[in-house]
Amino acid sequence: MDTVHPTRTGTNAPNNSAPLTRSPGCTNQIPWFCWATILGGLCLTVGILWDISWHSTIGRDTFFTPAHIAVYLGGSLGGIVCGWLVLQATLLQRGAYRERTVSVLGFRGPIGAWVVIWGASAMLVSAPFDDWWHNAYGLDVRILSPPHVLLALGMYHVVLGASMMAWSWMNNLSDTDRSRFSWFLTAAGGIQLTLASMLILEISVPNRQHSPTFVFASALLFPGILASAARNSYTKWPATQVALAYFLLFELMGLVLPLFPAEPKLAPILTRVTHMVPPMFPLLLFVPAIGMDWVYSRCGRGGGWKRDIAVAALCGIAFITLYIPTQWYASKFLLSPLADNTFFHGHGRYFGYRASPGNFRFEFWNRREPPIQFQTWVWGTTLAAASSWIGISIGNFLARIRR
Fold first, then answer.
1. Highest CATH level, class, for 203-403
2. What is the mean pLDDT of each run of 10 residues along the chain (403 residues)?
3. Could you give the dihedral angle defined by the CA atoms of residues 11, 14, 18 and 24, in that order, rounded to the nearest 10 degrees?
4. Which residues lie across from 102 on neighbouring strands?
5. Strand partners, 103
6. Smallest Cα–Cα separation from 46: which of 18, 21, 75?
7. Cβ atoms of residues 228 and 176 within 8 Å
8. How far is residue 267's CA from residue 265's CA, in Å, rounded to a whole number?
């Protein structure tokens, strides 16, 4: 059986399998296709943040904007690479290599490659759908329109499939090699977390972070990704590292985008904009991630459904207990004049040209919702625990995947 990793003193290592026989094509260097698919995921993540800024700064003047090209280039890169892997496994490889693939409609390929191909196909379908939608219903900037939801699902599966391919390769290595390359999985998790955060971007602005809706949406989305990272990593504080990778990527885009001059090209123009609008300051997810990592450090990473349920419940409690006060005070700061600077890009800097001037930019928008109360904590904890359990279940699968 695998030996216990040295960073897990006093814990049970995941049951990743028995003594590793080196599979054909498995090397001690990160395979080119893992690099390519993760690069594609990074490209489309940067592209979608760029696209949101483009809509807020310039407007959707044409489908072939640089941001759109970056998004579809990222998806196409992953799809082409994984398509080649499928053709290679089906037509060119024989023998033991085929044991590391699965069959779909007579073609063979790694499980992660099939997920990437599905995601890339969904992205390609969403492109003409999105163009038709805007022509039929207007050039809006809503994130969760039907074509945008299909695009988001496709992008997320491209990144998820890339992570699965990385895990498949990692699970065929020794523990020592896994530790050496754990940073690669951290980067993949950070891209995945960044992409997922965009699904609730409209309700994550600082102006809405004092509302139960924000708490519930966050509880459904983030704990699962962080729990999956904490369950599988071969490094210390894995969930915290993934959350920090998300923070750095999101903040880097917030610092770079305003460096480029731009102006609106689509009426009505309610606010004068002279540079690319930055995204809001990233959520401080590394704070609850520290709590979830602490739970794992105390409970270990052993298997068993009863243990998983208990760990998920504790992770849910840790996430909500730390997340609510962290974002409560962070959002108050971001709406204050103290955050009106390049680093925090707060105090309304994230509003685009279609937002009218006014004090609403510096106020909370939860007047139609009940305030955050004890029952918000209870329901939020329940949702976070359910999300954590799903993440742990996915993590158990990733710990066993070898194809």
1. mainly alpha
2. 38 41 55 88 91 86 80 89 87 64 82 89 80 66 70 84 84 73 85 90 91 94 92 81 95 94 85 91 96 88 80 95 96 94 90 85 82 91 96 85 75
3. -130
4. 109
5. 108
6. 75
7. no
8. 7
- In the block, tokens 């996430």 appear at 319
241: which 2 tokens?
């590292």
Question: Which amino acid, 222?
Answer: F
